[in-house]
Amino acid sequence: xxxxxxxxxxxxxxxxxxxxxxxxxxxxxxxxxxxxxxxxxxxxxxxxxxxxxxxxxxxxxxxxxxxxxxxxxxxxxxxxxxxxxxxxxxxxxxxxxxxxxxxxxxxxxxxxxxxxxxxxxxxxxxxxxxxxxxxxxxxxxxxxxxxxxxxxxxxxxxxxxxxxxxxxxxxxxxxxxxxxxxxxxxxxxxxxxxxxxxxxxxxxxxxxxxxxxxxxxxxxxxxxxxxxxxxxxxxxxxxxxxxxxxxxxxxxxxxxxxxxxxxxxxxxxxxxxxxxxxxxxxxxxxxxxxxxxxxxxxxxxxxxxxxxxxxxxxxxxxxxxxxxxxxxxxxxxxxxxxxxxxxxxxxxxxxxxxxxxxxxxxxxxxxxxxxxxxxxxxxxxxxxxxxxxxxxxxx
Length: 395
Hints:
Elements: H1 10-14, H2 19-48, H3 51-62, H4 64-71, H5 75-78, H6 81-98, H7 106-134, H8 140-169, H9 171-192, H10 205-218, H11 220-236, H12 238-241, H13 243-249, H14 257-276, H15 280-285, H16 287-295, H17 307-319, H18 324-333, H19 340-365, H20 371-393
Helix pairs in contact: 2-3, 2-8, 2-9, 3-7, 4-7, 4-19, 6-7, 6-9, 7-19, 8-9, 8-14, 8-18, 11-18, 11-19, 11-20, 13-14, 14-17, 16-17, 16-20
């Protein structure tokens, strides 16, 4: 069912019938999700006065990805993608709507947030699996790149505007808006996207998910590629966990940490845009250079650069994340059609989990070493480890 469209780049992807709705839905639901994280963090803090419980909002946003990726990955293959995507959006909308119940205990709020995190990787896996059916091999990595670019833009805008929106309308109204965004996403997908058939077997969901996990992990070339797609951002995202501490170390106001967060995201967007315009062969040849670009700028933190220079270094690092456009076709080719939904679900859940762990690890090491030394160490180890992994995965 793969559809070919002449040309390269994002415009070629968007010319494929029905795909504009996919990406608009992604932008709408992402905007609501980011706004909800900001709103819920503030709501929990207002009710409890506890910074720890407020911080648990982000933990509960990442933690369930592992559970959803392991236990429910087969859903992405066993049912038509459009049905899975709509159901996931409606489940998320129902969970956010539940948070609007007056006086709901904080534990219940976090529990509902955990549930949205469980379905999130299933949604991501089904969406990527449908792209693999709708796009040819040349455009598929560009389609995934566009999803990442939209996510980066939305995160930048969402966290910048979220706090202002909460101040203007309050966290409850912002959560209500998130319900609307999920329903809108479900409508866009349900009525505006092409049908793609199920490709997997019927049976026990958890058993099929574990079977798929064994298949993916037992395929050595595929395993190496998946590990590479996890480990590169695991190291390059470590400075995010130390952004506030690093700005304090330089003597700048802690609010300047936003420049570091923005730097990485802006670099990621620019890198995706540039790589999407290249030919598939060029993107493949640039995998190792882009991986090195994602890791080596962190080494320069040994010199304790000023916040503006540090932001530029992180932008350079973020641009290297476009290496995915070179390995996505390799991952796709190494996977049987009936396992692709499970592949993308596991890949997404593992990526979120390992990034959460790496950021927490950076924070822990940063309590022993100076923040700039911790970032430099991450760059040194990351450069070595990712280069070794890349050479094995691409050999």
